[in-house]
Amino acid sequence: MTDGDDGPPLFDLTDPPSVSDYLRDVWRRREFAVVVPAQDLRALNMDTALGQFWHLVNPALMIGVYFLIFGVILDARAGVDNYLGFLVIGVVVFHLTQRIVQDAAVSLSRNEGLIRSIQFPRILLPLSTVNGQTLGFLPALGVAAVTLLATGEVPGWRWLAMVAVLAGQYVFNLGAALIVARLGAVVRDVNQLLPHVFRLLFYISGVLFSVETFVTDETWRRLFALNPIYDIITCARWCLLGGSVSAAVVVGFVVWSLVLSVCGFVVFSRAERSFGR
């Protein structure tokens, strides 16, 4: 809009920016989404005896507990040659997504003061959550690699494909984080519901057992391919353990990652101006 025929043009500040302008603004402030989570990660556990070693100890202890209960006591190893490797991949991949989504649900409410004080793209808050939890995931990935090598797995060309799987999971996690952050800003109870949702997902994503062995009905097996976390875990296991992976799982993984990221951006960006009110 213009103010008469002379003078600079005036803009309505309530109008949402174009997608290109919005993304350029995010890119200009990208350091926030990298430096802040890195500093938070460095400060974590600084007041403990082991300090940063807890980033390695925690995933190792968690995997040990699951292996003792499900691998030894309940003997869920049927159909799996290297159950410890099978388990560590499932647990590490699953908990990365879980931690990102649950943390993203409170990323806006936790930073209300910042949102009301400074004008910046709000998407940087869930984005920094994704980046921070992904950085925190790297030690667990190292534990997984050491476990696989210790159990006799030999690195091959498929291990290189794990980079693509992790990239796809990052895109999926970002889309899920944006949607959950938007919901969490409106309904604070979302954060209380998510642990129960992920507890259900944990048992229906093949984290602890081989779906091919325990699920004999072909129709039910196909339904598993509709679960994006199962798709990610299965593709990761194909990369690191070998075996086979169905086309439905690969397609499901790709479609979920692309669709959820686009939907997440649209849902979040459209509500940009409402955050902090």
Describe this structure as you would to a colleague.
- With 277 residues, the chain is mainly alpha-helical.
- The chain has one domain (19-274).
- 69% of the residues lie in helices and 0% in strands.
- It has helices spanning 19-28, 32-43, 54-73, 83-104, 112-117, 124-150, 157-186, 190-203, 211-214, 218-224, 228-241, 247-270.
- Helix 2 crosses helix 6 and helix 7 packs parallel to helix 12 (247-270).
- The two termini are 26 Å apart.
Notable features of this structure?
277 residues, globular, mainly alpha
Outline of this structure?
This protein is an all-alpha fold and 277 residues long. 69% of the residues lie in helices and 0% in strands. It has one domain (19-274).
Question: What topology emerges from the helices and strands here?
Answer:
Elements: H1 19-28, H2 32-43, H3 54-73, H4 83-104, H5 112-117, H6 124-150, H7 157-186, H8 190-203, H9 211-214, H10 218-224, H11 228-241, H12 247-270
Unreliable segments of 5+ consecutive residues: none
Rounded to an integer in angstroms, the radius of gyration calculated over CA atoms is 21 Å
Compute the number of helices: 12
Number of strands: 0
Average pLDDT reading: 85
**SSE string, helix = H, strand = E?**
HHHHHHHHHHHH
Strand residue content? under 5%
Helix content: 55-70%
User: What is the end-to-end distance?
Assistant: 26 Å
**What structural class should be given to the helix and strand makeup?**
mainly alpha
